[in-house]
Amino acid sequence: MENKKMINKILYKIGLFALLLIIGVLINTVKVDAASKISMKNRYTSQYKLSNSQRDFWNQTLKEYKKGKKGIVDIHTKMTRKETERIVYNPEILSGLFYTDALIFPCTYGIKTDGSGIVMHVNMNDLKKAINSSSSNQKKINKIIKKLKLSRKTSQMDAVKKINNYLIKTISYDYSCKRYRLSDALKGSTTCSGYARAFCAIGKTIGLDARYVAGTGITSTQRGFHAWNSVKIGNSTKYLDICWNDSTKNSTKYLLISKKQISKNHKSKPSNNKNIIYKYI
Question: Which candidate, 229, 243, 244, 110, places its Cα nearest to that of 185?
Answer without folding.
Answer: 243
